[in-house]
Amino acid sequence: QLQLVESGGGLVQPGGSLRLSCAASGFTLDNYAIGWFPQAPGKEREGVSCISSSDGTTYYADSVKGRFTISRDNAKNTVYLQMNSLKPEDTAVYYCAAGLAAYSYVCYVIVSPYDYWGQGTQVTVSS
Q1: Tens digit of pLDDT for each residue in 3-18?
Q2: Rounded to an integer, what distance in angstroms lies between the CA atom of residue 116 and that of residue 25?
Q3: What is the Cα–Cα distance from 2 to 17, expressed in whole angstroms?
Q4: What beta strand segments (E) does 26-99 contain?
């Protein structure tokens, strides 16, 4: 069974940090681009970061640039999202997704190219 499982969410104060993990089972992430998609209540799922399958090309939305870092450990079949300087507006359920990109150096922050999704992990930033 092909599955992605997110973990690492929680409650954190503004300015704090969390590291989210996205672990794959049933398939290897080596050939997949990975994206992170937070979804706040009443809003659409919107990509904030992605990483390509081969050379680790990354992309960050302006809202998280300089605060979030995406990385992958193919040996552990896991992708991470390090989130620093968290803000209340970062509060959302964070989903990771895996998809086969057109090119190995490409990744996407839109929903449609991704085939596999995790169940999400809640991130709450509040004092």
Answers
A1: 999 999 999 999 999 9
A2: 11
A3: 30
A4: 33-39, 49-51, 58-60, 68-73, 78-83, 92-99
